[in-house]
Sequence to fold (128 residues):
Amino acid sequence: QVQLVESGGGLVQAGGSLSISCAASGSIFNTFVVAWFRQAPGKERQYVGGVRWSTGNADYRDSVKGRFTISRDNVKNTVFLHMNNLKPEDTAVYYCAASRPYSGGSFYYGGEDNYDYWGRGTQVTVSS
Fold:
């Protein structure tokens, strides 16, 4: 079992920066990928980016590449999402999710079905 708790959300002006974090507890060392998803009002939840727990290598959706950075501290069992040059369209509830252990083959970072554990989310609001 893995428990995830997001924190750090808030209100920021367009063009500003914000970092949010996801604190993990439980069997996080078995996790293959920890990812960030977001859901804006009235829209489907979408993949933002993910990090391989063992290596720290990260993957991002195109619309956040160059603006968002994901890092992880595997001593403190925490994953961070650093967001720069924020835009109003980044406004959403941001969720972190942890996948099951790697079982071989390709891994689709954006597939919600690949993630067994989810946090409750933290609100990020970008004002124009």
About this structure: The chain has a mean pLDDT of 95. The first strand starts at residue 2 and ends at 7. Residues 38 and 94 are 4 Å apart (CA to CA). The chain has no helices and eleven strands.
